[in-house]
């Protein structure tokens, strides 16, 4: 009896842990591969699949960076209309990092785009751009993605700097107490 309860408990815990992490991004329709800062404007054309959207464009960020991704409909006779974009974790596509917008003051790309997603100081990791839309193009790509990767605009201080600073303040305070 104890062994059966033990097995049931293990199966239950494994089931919960696999569900808690979320589903990986699928279907992936295009892949940038490894990306790093100083990548200016890399364009990928992507075709949606027969599966329901969103459709994902994957990229593996090698180091912390500022990310800008623009999405443009194909603009052909049989248009695909982009309705929304977002950056999510690749291994948990329900965890959104940044949402896209169709209203932006400046376009960081040299060509017009329909949607813009900005993710400043994005940590290294594997991410997916989720693109939703409607329409079907039989003569080429349904949508195009533009990726720009820049060095991070602000570099956070490492924990060791904070620890050193607080210990120095403590030493100064102790020195003041001894002199008084």
Q: What is the total tally of β strands?
A: 9
Q: Return the CATH topology.
A: Jelly Rolls
Number of helices: 2
Just name the CATH architecture.
Sandwich
- The CATH class designation is Mainly Beta
User: Strand order across the biggest sheet?
Assistant: 1-3-8-5-6
Verbal overview:
This protein is α+β, with helices and mostly antiparallel strands. The protein has helices at residues 2-20, 159-179, and strands spanning 28-35, 39-46, 55-61, 65-73, 81-89, 96-99, 115-122, 125-134, 143-150. The chain has a five-stranded mixed beta sheet, with no helix packed on it. Strands 2-9-4-7 form a four-stranded antiparallel beta sheet, with no helix packed on it.
Descriptive labels:
180 residues; alpha+beta; Jelly Rolls; five-stranded mixed β-sheet
Short structural summary:
The protein has 180 residues and is α+β, with helices and mostly antiparallel strands.
Q: Layout of helices and strands, plus pairs?
A:
Layout: H1 2-20, E1 28-35, E2 39-46, E3 55-61, E4 65-73, E5 81-89, E6 96-99, E7 115-122, E8 125-134, E9 143-150, H2 159-179
Parallel strand pairs: 1-3
Antiparallel strand pairs: 2-9, 3-8, 4-7, 4-9, 5-6, 5-8
């Amino acid at each position: 009896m104890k062994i059966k309860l033990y097995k049931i408990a293990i199966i239950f815990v494994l089931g919960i842990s696999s569900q808690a992490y979320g589903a990986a991004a699928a279907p992936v329709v295009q892949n940038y591969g490894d990306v790093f800062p100083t990548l200016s404007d890399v364009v990928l054309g992507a075709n949606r699949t027969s599966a329901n959207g969103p459709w994902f464009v994957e990229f593996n960020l090698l180091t912390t960076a500022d990310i800008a991704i623009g999405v443009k409909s194909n603009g052909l006779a049989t248009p695909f209309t982009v309705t929304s974009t977002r950056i999510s974790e690749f291994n948990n596509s329900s965890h959104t990092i940044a949402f896209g917008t169709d209203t932006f003051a400046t376009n960081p790309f040299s060509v017009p785009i329909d949607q813009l997603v900005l993710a400043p100081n994005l940590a290294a990791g594997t991410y997916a751009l989720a693109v939703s839309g409607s329409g079907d193009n039989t003569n080429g790509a349904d949508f195009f993605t533009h990726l720009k990767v820049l060095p991070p605009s602000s570099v956070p201080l490492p924990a060791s700097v904070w620890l050193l600073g607080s210990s120095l303040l403590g030493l100064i305070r102790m020195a003041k107490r001894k002199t008084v």
